[in-house]
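User: Fold this; tokens only.

Assistant: Input:
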Amino acid sequence: MSQRTEFYSERGVAVLASYTRTGYPVGAPDRLTPLLQHLGPLIETAVDAQQVAAVLEAHGYNDRMVLERYGYPNVFELAEALYRIAPRRAAASRRKANRLPETLRELSHGLFYGMPGLFFPAIFAWVGAREATLGLILSAILGWAWSQGMIRLAYVLMGRGFAPEARLLLRTMMFIGLGLAALIAPVVRGSLELVVLVVLQMAYHMASGVLLLYKRELWLLLATSPAVLAGLVFLLAPDLLGVAPTTLVMMGSVLLSFAAALITLQVKATYSPWKILQRPDWLDTLPLMLYGLLSAIFVFLNPFWHWITNTPIASGLAVVPLVLSMGGLEWQLRVFLERMSLLLASTDDLGVFARNVNRIFFSVLASYGLLLLALSLLALVFFDLRDSQAQVFLVANFLLGLGFFVAFTLTSMNRTLRVLLGMVLALMVYVVAFGLSLQGLLPLDGHLSYLLGCGVFTVYLLLVALPVLRELRNYQ
């Protein structure tokens, strides 16, 4: 699913390469002058000190760092000082909220996330349906959580001006991720084919995340085109190429993607990223990784149940619209943040801000919802999803998509723990409802239990988000 690759750079967090590496402006007549020079464009339109504090926190400043470098007891004291001396600018330059090239680029991400689905028929024929299902579930769960963590840590480093070190971190974590994936198959006593499948699926997951992060969509497209063509040929005429040649082409494409990601990350770093990252950085990253892990378990619990009971997964195609819509989610979330920036730049009246924030949020949520609805209706017709269970899954995934949108909004505002709590709650409701249904205590089944869990997740996050959206410090 989406790894939210644009939001930090759009908000300026990852673009201030002039951030001092040593952090000690030795000899400066005014210790705040260098800081003002670096952060000035971001704080000159702030309407209060809290916005300045949010900028400082987004760049990794904490109370200890502020005390050591500038002599202020905490971030908010420093923010007050900066707010007092920073030159004021009444309004920021207006940017277009919808930029076509960027929008198309963001929408393409959904296609990249869903592209592996074209590989599955040949893979199932090569590995075997039962073992391939298990491999794809396990690698998706590991890849979801691991990619969330590595991208988050990279953003932390980039936000502090350590862009080369962020690339080194990503490169190292990609190899560690491959090692973790290689351990899965032996743990479940899988075959050599399962090992290869899990490792390659993990490799694509990480490589695509890195290439999308650095806006190398064209590279990813060129690397995966042979596999896409081979997958389409296998779908239309399985005997034309055969299982083994088709699988080899797919393996080659994944390896090309991985190599492209490594080339992207090839840069000499001055410092070790492991020494730059501090304990709070790791502690802040763990909830996001746990949220990714639980989200994957939530989505794949039903397929796993069918794998255990050896029953057919009739509703697998119902997840396709949700996956394809992830690019639209990124697009609308970017539009939301831009519209909020324009709102902040155009008014210093908190009442006007409060009256408009919910309107803007629900309008972009509705736009994303319409996109997901259109994709769901297309899937209903194109895949001929007449089965009632598949239709329930389609509705459930529509609700889950809305919940994911709210979740991404909240995590972009550093409310990861609340999002994590929402997923824990949804998973508990899902599992308990399903368990009671199996015992005949509830008139539900696995699909309706999943629908119930999705509804709980989305409603809970909406209730959490409404007061958070009104906090000014989230938009700087």
